[in-house]
């Protein structure tokens, strides 16, 4: 494609140039930089009165695939332009029928970035917004062209483009999360098996179990009513996925000529999708959330029922690529898959599929039917070669069932489209989880601009792993990036015998407490200050700590100071010598300048006395 694209660049002459933008990246332009349509190849192009609802009112560009071979719609004046003052490429797109697969290529003339785009299945407009940081490799000081091609290359396929432009969006600078693709691996591979045939139980399952690999088995009614039903029921218990492969394995056809073909209507569409899903789930005792089209035919009567009941559906060519990148916009009801076959070879075919997934940082799905022997779709020696090779590549590949990977990816897309909400304590995220999502989807995320913050979900602080990843539950529907407390350390004391004590606050951080014994006369004090210097703690709104006394009922006095002004308050420990949580709003400590806080001093009014302090900190509540 690059060679063809270069030829087109050489052939086209300059037309009505766009105004050249020459701004530095530090300047934030107020108006978008509009990119005009230039020309096309194998597409019939025309202006269309259809406009984006609520948008600028500019007529859209309508493209119809008019011939075979490579097609492209060029947005450019073929010159070099500095658009680095912007940070976002955005546009609107829709398909004539819905579900069209497009590919976008943005180029600086030397390097380029490609992304797959799926138009909405209901033929509505879709707003696509891509941050410059995601378009790695492109030099936006030398931008030249944007090209849209239609991977759904059937003649008369129609799609519309509107408001292609570079924009500047004020970046969110607060703490936020980013999802780590493919569960932290470089790539992902899913092995799937269709039809629920006995040879899969006899050969594929033992080979997979021996390597600790999990796969997806798309089964039909035959498997849940046959003699091997109990064997199929064991697969989910071993971590494999059971998927829906329809009730009767009919192929949708406008003009049926074979016994396995049927003309679909609403009744048959429902029976082969939702009814089959319910029957398989009940018979296997496991949730069934994914689908594989019989003969890879994603007929509209099937999609109609799948889109609201299944997480994703596996097809053949799918969205136009066998290697799906995290930045792609997939059609969840038509995910691509590579099919093994009798004459296929690990050395010439299957190995390259795995290697390409790794090199492209992508997910690829591999499908087999019968296995074992020489007259089947996947000979046993070729299956073992593939499984063994995947085993050697575990450090680079996330090997997981189809539903696990598609669920992770779909949840990732949901999180990436969220807008962080500022709260008094930090930042919150909230999202919806469709009913057909499995309840065990966990995502690995990283903190961006997160110094001084912690990830909290369901009231629990999540600790990062060695790689700095936080594992969050998608089913929890929310999380918070909460400002970490500012711990204040014990420094020294006067007329107090101080020691570290193993006693900790129940259910708290597990930090050992400080034990103080006052047995003398005169003024005593326990000083809490990190270095006796001034510190700005005004981002917090509360001073809190835990306290208890050895015998109970001890009166303490606390003094908070900025070095010039201070605030004092008396604290009574519980009479039963239990721990007490003290929380004091900074707003009540009048006179103290918390942009210059220096010390906290705790003295014992009761003499003699033993008391304990734990977790002295400033926090945001």
UniProtKB/TrEMBL annotation:
State a single Pfam family of this protein: CBM30
Q: Which UniProt keywords apply?
A: Signal
Q: Which PROSITE patterns match?
A: NODB
Q: List the Gene3D superfamilies.
A: Galactose-binding lectin, Glycoside hydrolase/deacetylase
InterPro entries documented for this protein:
CBM30, Galactose-bd-like_sf, Glyco_hydro/deAcase_b/a-brl, NODB_dom, Polysacch_Deacetylase
Source superkingdom? Bacteria
Q: Which GO terms describe its molecular function?
A: hydrolase activity, acting on carbon-nitrogen (but not peptide) bonds
Report any one BP term from Gene Ontology. carbohydrate metabolic process
Domain NodB homology, first and last residues per copy: 187-400
Tell me the first and last residues of the signal peptide: 1-27
- Record protein name field: NodB homology domain-containing protein
Q: Which organism is it from?
A: Paenibacillus mucilaginosus 3016
């Amino acid at each position: 494609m690059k060679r063809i694209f270069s030829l087109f660049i050489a052939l086209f002459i300059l037309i009505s140039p766009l105004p050249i933008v020459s701004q530095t990246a530090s300047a934030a332009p107020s108006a978008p930089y509009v990119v005009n349509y230039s020309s096309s190849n194998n597409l019939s192009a025309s202006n269309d009165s259809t406009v984006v609802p609520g948008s600028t009112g500019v007529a859209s560009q309508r493209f119809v695939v008019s011939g075979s071979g490579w097609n492209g719609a060029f947005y450019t004046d073929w010159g070099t332009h500095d658009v680095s003052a912007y940070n976002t490429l955005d546009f609107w797109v829709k398909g004539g029928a819905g579900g069209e697969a497009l590919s976008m290529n943005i180029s600086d003339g030397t390097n380029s970035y490609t992304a797959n785009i799926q138009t909405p299945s209901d033929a509505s407009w879709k707003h696509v917004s891509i941050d410059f940081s995601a378009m790695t490799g492109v030099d936006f000081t030398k931008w030249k062209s944007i090209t849209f091609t239609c991977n759904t290359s059937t003649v008369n396929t129609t799609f519309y483009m509107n408001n292609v432009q570079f924009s500047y969006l004020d970046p969110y600078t607060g703490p936020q999360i980013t999802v780590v693709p493919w569960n932290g691996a470089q790539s992902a591979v899913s092995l799937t098996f269709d039809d629920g045939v006995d040879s899969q139980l006899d050969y594929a399952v033992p080979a997979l179990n021996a390597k600790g690999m999990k796969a997806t088995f798309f089964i039909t009614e035959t498997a849940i009513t046959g003699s091997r039903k109990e064997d199929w029921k064991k697969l989910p218990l071993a971590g494999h996925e059971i998927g829906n492969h329809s009730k009767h394995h009919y192929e949708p056809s406008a003009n049926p000529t074979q016994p396995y073909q049927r003309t679909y209507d609403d009744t048959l569409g429902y029976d082969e999708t939702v009814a089959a899903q319910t029957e398989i789930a009940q018979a296997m005792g496991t949730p069934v959330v994914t689908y594989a089209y019989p003969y890879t035919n994603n007929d509209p009567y099937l999609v109609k029922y799948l889109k609201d009941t299944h997480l994703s559906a596996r097809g053949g060519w799918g969205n136009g690529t066998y290697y799906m990148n995290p930045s792609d916009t997939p059609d969840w009801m038509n995910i691509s898959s590579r099919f093994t076959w009798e004459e296929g070879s690990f050395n010439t075919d299957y190995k390259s599929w795995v290697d390409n997934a790794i090199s492209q940082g992508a997910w690829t799905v591999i499908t087999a039917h019968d296995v074992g022997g020489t007259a089947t779709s996947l000979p046993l020696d070729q299956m073992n070669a593939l499984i063994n090779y995947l085993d050697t590549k575990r450090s680079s590949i996330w090997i997981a069932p189809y539903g696990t990977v598609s669920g992770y990816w779909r949840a990732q897309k949901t999180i990436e489209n969220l807008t962080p909400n500022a709260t008094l304590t930090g930042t919150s995220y909230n999202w919806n989880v469709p009913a057909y999502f499995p309840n065990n989807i966990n995502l690995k995320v990283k903190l961006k601009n997160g110094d001084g913050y912690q990830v909290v979900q369901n009231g629990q602080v999540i600790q990062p792993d060695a790689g700095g990843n936080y594992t969050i539950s998608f089913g929890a529907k929310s999380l918070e990036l909460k400002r970490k407390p500012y711990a204040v350390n014990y420094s020294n004391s006067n007329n107090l015998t101080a020691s570290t004590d193993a006693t900790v606050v129940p259910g708290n951080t597990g930090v050992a407490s400080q034990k103080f014994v006052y047995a003398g006369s005169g003024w005593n004090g326990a000083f809490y200050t990190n270095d006796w210097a001034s510190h700005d703690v005004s981002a917090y709104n509360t001073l809190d700590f835990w306290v208890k006394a050895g015998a109970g009922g001890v009166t303490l006095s606390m003094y908070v100071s900025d070095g010039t002004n201070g605030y004092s308050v008396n604290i009574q420990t519980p009479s039963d010598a239990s721990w007490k949580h003290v929380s004091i709003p900074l707003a009540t400590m009048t006179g103290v300048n918390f942009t210059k806080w220096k010390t906290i001093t705790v003295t014992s009014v009761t003499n003699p006395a033993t008391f304990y302090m734990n977790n002295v900190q400033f926090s945001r509540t």
